[in-house]
């Protein structure tokens, strides 16, 4: 059953213009359009800010020095190209299972199948690691067993995601607000130290730290290139705004605004924050495993700095797990609606949340927490490493689909998007090349090489699953129809009476 046929078959709300908006506050996929502009904006902002900045940047600074600022700036430009490519696709057809839907339509059934399940796995593994990390952060204040905190966090976030998408959006809004406030506060404090000279760091703080101690490239260009995988990993989840398309109150208006904020978000939260921190604290003072924010607080003389950062990374971890709960249920439902997953995942609660898919994913997260607690060894490390390469797979699919969509739209085969990516398809090809360089760097770095070893194994699992499911239900793996085909399927046939569908049935 194709996605167009499912839209008609579900009977969960009428499709509006373009097949995206539904009456009664529901989308054609059965979801409630309850995410407003305020929530979409903060989900987009929060998706680009995580523990990769608050904790992981310390390792990157020790490898590249001040040139890490340039790495974040260039990578941020690539992320903007990816998000504009996604935006063009979303305005063409805003659907909740966006990545796999577009891969299914513009590349083929196998690509859609792999993309959906890979993105689901990415968030399950991310949820496992983040809820475990959150439990670890709790021990900073209280001597609580790690398993107990992990259990409470998982159950609470699971409950939040089952209440309604609006509650999820509100919780994500405040999680993101904490992260944004922390970064803006740090930038203002560092700016005050540089201009007014107060605090313990006032006498030594200077922008000259950016080119002293070995210059702007103290480890050479090679050192900067080796940090690209760390930098790109920090941006994983920025594409989450695409998953919200099916539940955005006004996707044609809110999604472009959210995507267009990407440049200034990266400029302020990454480039701006690093410039301030590295001006107050010389890059030689940073060590792997130590948050650059903690180091800056210590140099300034704020004793509460470590506690503040611990609270921020706690909210960042919970935010990521919350996003994982949200996205995994939607991806499983999209796969099931297209016959590429168990049919029971299509079930929605009265509030429009995918009950079974979210429950299944939450259960796996709990099992993963238990495994991590019992055997925190190499096997779990391998799975976690794979999450990084699987996250970038979604970016690759977005870019390839945008290139193919633009070509068909330019030929008049498909309607043009109201939010065209500037410079495409050249910017999309550039972003693909950049991701290719990052993957090569991952292969060179022995700390991240394991990610590439896991990819062929997952590809083999996907191939076996695809062949098995296609043999049982060939129609489910037909190429997804384009806009013209969906319109023809929705249009009533000649002579059809009132209440008749495309085939003349009730």
From TrEMBL:
Location of the Amino acid permease/ SLC12A domain: 40-465
Keyword Transmembrane tagged: yes
Membrane topology, as annotated: Multi-pass membrane protein
Record's subcellular location: Cell membrane
This protein's UniProt keywords: Amino-acid transport, Cell membrane, Membrane, Transmembrane, Transmembrane helix, Transport
PANTHER family in UniProt: GABA PERMEASE (PTHR43495), L-ASPARAGINE PERMEASE (PTHR43495:SF1)
Name listed for the protein in its UniProt record: Alanine glycine permease
Organism encoding this protein: Streptomyces sulfonofaciens
